[in-house]
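so im writing up the methods section and need the Glycoside hydrolase record in one place, dumping it here so i stop losing it
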Amino acid sequence: MDVSWQHNNAPNPADAADGPQGYDHHLYYSFGGVAAPNPTAYLTNICNIDRAANDAAKGNSPVWFGEWGLPTQFEATDEFLSQWADAQKWAYGKGKGWIFWNFKTEVSEKTNGTALARQWSYLEGLKMGFLTQDPSQYHDPNVCAPYAAKGSTP
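--- predicted struct ---
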């Protein structure tokens, strides 16, 4: 994991490097503490995040985003989940790449049908149209334009 995962002022993993290293970062908004629980705050935060550059400045490079998903701390609309997917792919693409958390999540009565899978399952995200068939593409390549700070290039 990258330096941002170290707690209580623990040492930077890059300082202990013995040969080439890669760093993994997991960023989940659904567990709180990242942005206020609403669509504008989520998109403003992710569209201005610069974890890859910050990690590189601390020697934690290359970094990839090894876990992410679409869950939120609020009732997300289908339209928002498409934007949320695009914005996260854009932000995490600044590193060496990304891996969606889970390829497939069970859809059953125990999981309230697709309620769980719509935000945690890559296959369900494809089926529902939140994710693009070609993972390198976006529904809206300018998704971050309204949220990016002046001087940022979405």
